[in-house]
Design brief:
Distance between the termini: 23 Å
Helix content: 25-40%
Shape: globular
Number of strands: 7
Order of helices and strands: EEHEHHEEHEHEHHH
CATH architecture: 3-Layer(aba) Sandwich
CATH superfamily: Zn peptidases
Structural class: alpha/beta
Strand order of the largest sheet: 1-3-2-4-7-5-6
């Protein structure tokens, strides 16, 4: 089986499945942030660590629980998209196509359990933001399973929302999340090696926390996130056109 292409190795050798958990002093929703589902996309992990660290230092009026999870740990250590099979194609469809000895079988099982554990102890609604980056220069955009709740959540991040993309790919984590009734979105924060990809992911997480009602819109980090993610209508249209053209190919 073809293996994912290699990138210069990031500092992911010590990455654990649960990057961290921050609990507010009041009950509220749970936001599960996931990074590194593909091993050549470490920017999401950087974004999650930045938000975790900020909340620990300055919790402010934080309610509910933030759970930060890492995806394909062996692939992250190698800087590859995957080792044996794409971890983002294993969450539905024909599981007979998945080699039982594939490295990602264990990764999928552990990540699935970590998601369900967080959802089981949730004291409110469960939201999930799955952070990715792209190989090409398509710009930042979000993808959802098309429900009104998902639309409201994704639109908190002011980048193009691409509808229908999830229907073109089987077995994604997003499919699994939708089937369980979680409010979920994928946020593609930019190109793999683009320096701004991690900061866009960080901003998206703060806006997701605000959308879930876990932090105040007056929090200085949320205000900064709005400035980071603001884009002109012309830029949004250009980005959306690039994404749709790539999908058509």
């Amino acid at each position: 089986m073809t293996r994912g292409s290699a990138l210069p190795k990031a500092d992911t050798s010590e990455t654990q499945r649960v990057l961290g958990v921050v609990k507010g002093d009041r009950p509220g929703p749970t936001l599960i942030g996931i990074g590194g589902l593909h091993g050549n996309e470490p920017a999401g992990l950087d974004a999650l660590r930045l938000v975790l660290g900020s909340l620990r230092e300055q919790p402010g009026a934080f309610r509910g629980e933030l759970v930060a999870l890492a995806g394909n740990l062996p692939a992250l250590a190698e800087g590859r998209r995957f080792l044996d099979i794409d971890l983002n194609r294993m969450w539905g469809g024909d599981q007979n196509q998945v080699p039982p000895d594939a490295t990602e079988v264990g990764e999928q099982g552990e990540l699935r359990q970590a998601i369900l554990d967080a959802a089981t102890r949730a004291r409110g609604e469960v939201y999930v933001l799955d952070l990715h980056t792209t190989s090409g220069e398509g710009g930042a955009f979000t993808v959802i399973g098309d429900t009104l709740r998902n639309r409201r959540f994704a639109r908190a991040i002011p980048v193009p929302l691409v509808l229908g993309l999830e229907e073109l790919v089987d077995g994604t984590l997003l499919e699994f999340l939708d089937e369980r009734g979680f409010i979920a979105a994928v946020f593609e924060t930019g190109q793999h090696q683009e320096e701004l990809s991690a900061s866009r992911g960080e901003a998206g997480l703060w806006l997701a926390l605000e959308a879930a009602g876990m932090v105040s819109g007056e929090d200085h980090r949320v205000r900064a996130a709005r400035r980071t993610r603001s884009t002109s209508p012309a830029h949004r249209a250009k980005t959306a056109a690039r994404v749709l053209a790539a999908v058509a190919l």
